[in-house]
């Protein structure tokens, strides 16, 4: 059934958003590239390129560990990296609310410049619009990115088989909690910082050294739980993960318990989920741990034949529970 109105939940990464994509966008815009539902598009043009676009509407625009400018660069870069592309060129469009202080806008642009250089990408085109006060919240950013595919093998859910291992490259749930604490002015005493960071220096060298990575995705909106459910649903296989192996800082765990939030559903902006061949999982884990961004990498689970399209969590107390996809994320506007 078609919704009468678009809700915040339609952009949160949960079931409402996936229904909207399937029932509206895929029906109206369907083509072989879009049907993959990857964060970047694989394009054959003389050589293989990846192309992505994204919009950033985070509130607040500054948060511990980052800001909307850094988020725009890292988010776009990481979407390209998830297809094994070397990010090269970005576009940048700014939608600015009338009355925004020039100094604040300058700080955002400085952040964009710094993090683009750090990630090794060049912003080659852009646009700026100013809208009436109240028509947007301070500043919104839209980007597009192009990267060069560096390997022959295509990363796709269709490569995944029962027995493959699931790796996460770092601690989970830091970005969403950092944004939440700043937005609500929560003095939790934990000083949690966003993990927002580009992943090209961590993952691209590993991709060049092994052909055992089958699929990659950065678990942003909807967190680890939503990404694993997407993988399970897209393969008709099951996934079993072990709670004791999921990397999470003691500060984030304590904050989640205090707020009653499941960290598996909280957004991340500087880590990725990898599905890899079982026999090479330890080798890939070793390579990840050699990089500062991968020191907390862990093998958290495996792909299984059944139950189909389900994610099962082996809890720390020895029980099991289904990790479902949320209908709507509890914290909108985190990216």
Identify the notable features of this structure and list them briefly.
single chain, 335 residues, alpha+beta, 60s Ribosomal Protein L30, Chain: A, Phosphoribosyl-aminoimidazole Synthetase, Chain A, domain 2, 2 domains, 7-stranded mixed beta sheet, 5-stranded mixed beta sheet, 8 helices
Structure description:
The protein has 8 helices and 14 strands. The protein has helices at residues 15-29, 68-81, 102-119, 174-183, 200-209, 223-235, 250-259, 281-289, and strands at residues 41-45, 47-56, 62-63, 66-67, 85-97, 122-131, 139-149, 165-168, 213-217, 238-242, 273-276, 298-304, 311-314, 320-322. The two termini are 28 Å apart.
Q: How does the SSE layout of this entry go?
A:
Elements: H1 15-29, E1 41-45, E2 47-56, E3 62-63, E4 66-67, H2 68-81, E5 85-97, H3 102-119, E6 122-131, E7 139-149, E8 165-168, H4 174-183, H5 200-209, E9 213-217, H6 223-235, E10 238-242, H7 250-259, E11 273-276, H8 281-289, E12 298-304, E13 311-314, E14 320-322
Parallel strand pairs: 5-6, 10-13
Antiparallel strand pairs: 1-2, 2-7, 3-4, 5-7, 8-11, 8-12, 9-11, 10-12, 13-14
Helix pairs in contact: 2-3
């Amino acid at each position: 059934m078609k919704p009468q109105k678009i809700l915040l939940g339609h952009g949160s990464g949960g079931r409402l958003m996936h229904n909207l994509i399937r029932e509206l966008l895929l029906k109206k815009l369907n083509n072989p590239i879009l049907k993959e539902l990857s964060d970047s598009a694989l394009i054959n043009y003389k050589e293989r390129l990846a192309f992505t676009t994204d919009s950033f509407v985070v509130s607040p625009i500054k948060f511990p560990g980052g800001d909307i400018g850094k988020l725009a660069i890292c988010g776009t870069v990481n979407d390209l990296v998830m297809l094994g592309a070397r990010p090269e060129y970005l576009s940048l469009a700014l939608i600015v609310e009338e009355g925004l202080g020039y100094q604040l806008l300058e700080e955002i642009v400085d952040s964009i410049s710094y993090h683009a250089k750090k990630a090794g990408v060049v912003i080659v085109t852009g646009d700026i619009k100013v809208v009436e006060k109240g028509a947007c919240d301070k500043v919104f950013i839209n980007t597009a990115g192009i990267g060069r595919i560096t390997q022959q093998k295509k990363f796709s859910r269709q490569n995944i088989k029962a027995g493959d291992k699931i790796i996460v490259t770092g601690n989970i749930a830091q970005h969403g909690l950092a944004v939440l604490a700043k937005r609500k002015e929560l003095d939790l005493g934990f000083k949690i910082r966003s993990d927002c960071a580009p992943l090209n220096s961590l993952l691209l060298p590993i991709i060049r050294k092994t052909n055992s990575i089958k699929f990659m995705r950065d678990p942003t909106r909807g967190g680890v739980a939503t990404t694993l459910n997407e993988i399970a649903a897209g393969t008709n296989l099951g996934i079993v993960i072990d709670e004791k192996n999921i990397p999470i800082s003691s500060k984030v765990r304590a904050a989640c318990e205090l707020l009653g939030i499941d960290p598996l559903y909280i957004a991340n902006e500087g880590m990725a989920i990898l599905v890899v061949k079982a026999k090479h999982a330890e080798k890939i884990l070793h390579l990840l741990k050699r990089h500062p961004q991968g020191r907390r990498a862990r093998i958290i689970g495996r792909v299984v034949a059944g139950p189909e399209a389900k994610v099962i969590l082996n809890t720390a107390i020895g029980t099991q529970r289904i990790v479902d996809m949320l209908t709507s994320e509890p914290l909108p506007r985190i990216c």
